[in-house]
C-alpha cells in the first residue's frame, strides 16, 4: 500500500497529478481485468482510457464540467 500525501520526495509536478497517482497505485493489478473505483478528484476520461489499455476498468464520479466529457454524457 502507498499513501498519497501530496508532494513526495523525488517526484516531479507531472508525476504528482491525480491520474498519475492512480496509475502508480494500480500498477500491481494492471493487466488483470480488475476494476478501479475513484472519487471525482481522481476520475477523468484520460485516466479511464489509459487504464482500459491495460485491461483495467474505471468507475468514478465526475463533475460535468471536466475536460473531454462527451456532450451526450453531460445531461
Automatic annotation (TrEMBL):
Q: Which residues form the PiggyBac transposable element-derived protein domain?
A: 3-74
Q: Would you say which domain of life the source belongs to?
A: Eukaryota
Question: What PANTHER family does the annotation carry?
Answer: DUAL SPECIFICITY PHOSPHATASE 26, PIGGYBAC TRANSPOSABLE ELEMENT-DERIVED PROTEIN 4
Which InterPro entries is this protein grouped with? PGBD
Segment Disordered: which positions? Answer: 1-20
Query: What Pfam families does this protein's entry cite?
Result: DDE_Tnp_1_7
Q: What is this protein called?
A: PiggyBac transposable element-derived protein domain-containing protein
Amino acid at each position: 500500500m502507498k499513501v498519497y500525501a501530496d508532494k513526495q520526495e523525488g517526484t516531479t509536478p507531472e508525476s504528482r497529478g491525480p491520474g498519475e497517482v492512480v496509475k502508480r497505485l494500480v500498477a500491481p493489478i494492471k493487466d488483470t481485468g480488475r476494476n478501479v473505483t475513484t472519487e471525482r478528484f481522481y476520475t477523468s476520461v484520460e485516466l479511464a482510457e489509459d487504464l482500459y489499455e491495460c485491461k483495467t476498468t474505471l468507475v468514478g464520479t465526475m463533475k460535468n464540467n471536466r475536460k473531454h466529457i462527451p456532450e451526450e454524457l453531460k445531461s
